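Following up on my earlier thread - several people asked me to post the actual chain instead of describing it. Fair enough. Here it is, all 114 residues.
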Amino acid sequence: QVQLVESGGGLVQPGGSLRLSCAASRSIFNIQTMAWYRQAPGKQRELVAAISSGGSTNYAGSVKGRFTISRDNLKNTVFLQMNSLKPEDTAVYYCNAYHLRDFWGQGTQVTVSS
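Reply from S.P.:
Thanks for posting it. Predicted structure:
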């Protein structure tokens, strides 16, 4: 069992940056995959970025080159650095941990608007 708490969301202008954090209630050292998903109004939840226990990463095509996922196993935290934000990045962002099954955080709102 693992509880996940996201933070760092907010309102930002187009072209701006935000850094999301996901704090886990236990060690993430052996958690197979940590990921960020997002869900915009009226749309399905989609994978944004994922990082394996070995450090391999993959990104949605729409965020590649702008977003960076990282994990700090000592602090049990996963980060999502988001740069060059666009209005279409507006969504609720969810942290996900996959270890035998999926665990989800409560989500944090990111709004990109002028």
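The longest strand covers residues 91-99. That should answer part of your original question.
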